[in-house]
Design goal:
single chain; endopeptidase fold (from Nostoc punctiforme); globular; 6-stranded antiparallel sheet
Length: about 190
């Protein structure tokens, strides 16, 4: 009798283990969509936090360069920065993304956004030499941007609502890095 019970128990255990796993029945497509939505929301939150962390690093790093002198064609702290050299160096140092060298090339290589959509780390462009996108800075929030303005000046923070900058505003752009592209496609 013991042998029969032992054999029956063993067969029952094997049949339970061998049974294929079945997908849970959600009952309707809406419930299944909620589960998918929660998964996507989780992935979105992770990507969002990564972007926030990188943006915070970028803004904090740029503030460490306040007072560095302007130098036409300059792109290092040792030599000084011009506007586009400053932006290029900051993105390369903090995000590992190498932007083009000139302001108008940086505008062309980045994603156009509305001024109302500006977030810290976005680029802001101005017409300071009688042509659009002749000057660039990095938006730091609350209507302010950091840049290397002109000969004889130093890297500083300015208010975009000042009349000089308001009259010369050319547009805003967002830098899309390979990491951003990968994050978008990994959620697909």
């Amino acid at each position: 009798m013991r042998l029969i019970l032992l054999t029956a128990g063993l067969l029952l255990a094997l049949s339970v283990q061998a049974a294929p796993m079945q997908r849970p029945d959600f009952g309707d497509d809406a419930a299944e969509a909620q589960v998918v939505d929660k998964t996507l929301k989780g992935q979105f939150q992770q990507v969002r936090q990564t972007v926030v962390d990188r943006t915070s690093d970028l803004v904090v790093t740029t503030m460490g360069f306040l007072g560095v002198p302007y130098r036409r064609g300059g792109n290092t702290v040792e030599t000084g920065f011009d506007c586009s050299g400053f932006v290029r160096a900051m993105y390369n140092q903090t995000v590992g993304h190498l932007l083009p060298r000139r302001a108008e090339e940086q505008a062309a290589a980045t994603q156009k956004i509305d001024r109302s959509d500006l977030k810290p780390g976005d680029l802001v462009f101005f017409n300071t030499m009688r042509r659009a996108f002749s000057h660039v800075g990095i938006y730091v929030g609350e209507g302010k941007f950091i840049h290397s303005p002109k000969p004889g000046a130093q890297v500083r923070v300015e208010d975009m609502s000042g009349s000089y900058w308001q009259r010369r505003f050319s547009g805003a752009r967002r830098v899309i890095t390979a990491q951003d592209d990968n994050a978008k496609t990994s959620g697909d």
